[in-house]
Amino acid sequence: MVRLNAGELTKRITIQAETGNPDAYGQPLGSWTTIATVWGKIITSGGREFYAAQKLNAESTAVIEIRYRTNITTANRIMYNNRKYNILSVVDPLESHVMLQIACKEVV
Hints:
There is one protein chain. This protein is mostly beta strands and about 110 residues long. About 0% of the residues lie in helices and about 60% in strands. The protein has one domain (about 5-105): Beta Barrel (Thrombin, subunit H). It has a 6-stranded antiparallel beta barrel. It is globular.
């Protein structure tokens, strides 16, 4: 059985969806709208530095746990303390509909 300890959900996070009409090439214009602000738990799972395009890049990953919702997909993003996270996966542990575990990568 999956249990959610509500006392551990101490971070206020914002879930956003990309909105707006695409440009002439069909690409999104990069406008974001808040779809929910919820309490969550952020578990950082590490980071790394790597070279790409002849420059040093940093990457930080995290898992964010929140109460179960039906409207979160990998097309959304998460904002926390002026940090942006792209959603890599959304998992409902044991299909219990109690919580979601969202694997994210910080946009640096």
